[in-house]
Amino acid sequence: MPRATAPAAQPDWTDPDCPVARALDLVGDRWSLLVVRDAMDGARAFTEFQRRTGIARNILTERLRRLTAHGVLTQRTAPSGRRQEYVLTDAGRDLFSVVLTLRQWGERHAFAPGEEHSVLVDAHGAPVPELTPSAPDGTPLGPDTTHVVKRTP
C-alpha cells in the first residue's frame, strides 16, 4: 500500500524535528483519538461520533475537519447516497497500534484491580494479546534499550 503524503512543514510545529511531537500536533488531543477509536469501531456518521463520545458539535466539526485535512479520515458518500460519512484512510488505520497500546496501558494503569472495563477481542472472540515492541532478534525493547539519533542536514 502506498504511504500517505506527509503534511507540509508548518511554522507552528511544537518540535519540528521530532516525529512524536508532530504526531501529537496532528492527533494528540483527547477528542481526535476518540474519534479515531470510534472510526476503528465502525462509526461513520457525524451523529454516531457525537453519540459515542459526547463531544460538542462545534468541537467534533473541527476535529473531523482537521483529521480529514491531515489525511487520517476521508469523506465519501454513504451507501444510501443521502449523506457523507467518514472512513479511515491508510494513515488512520496505521493508528491502530497506537490506540491498542493506549488501551493496554489504560487496562494496566487506569483501573483498580478487578474493576470492570471493555475488552478488545479478535475475530474469534479471544482477547488481543499484549503488544510488546521487539528487536529483530526478538529481544523486548523499552526506554532502557533504545535511544534517539538526531539527524542533521
TrEMBL record:
Parts of the chain that traverse the membrane: none
Domain (HTH hxlR-type) ranges: 18-114
Superkingdom of the organism of origin: Bacteria
The organism's taxonomic lineage, starting at the top: Bacteria, Bacillati, Actinomycetota, Actinomycetes, Kitasatosporales
MF GO annotations: DNA binding
Region spans: Disordered: 126-153
Matches recorded under Pfam families: HxlR (PF01638)
Protein name per the record: Transcriptional regulator
Record key words, sorted: DNA-binding, Transcription, Transcription regulation
UniProt cross-references to PROSITE patterns, sorted A to Z: HTH_HXLR (PS51118)
Organism: Streptomyces termitum
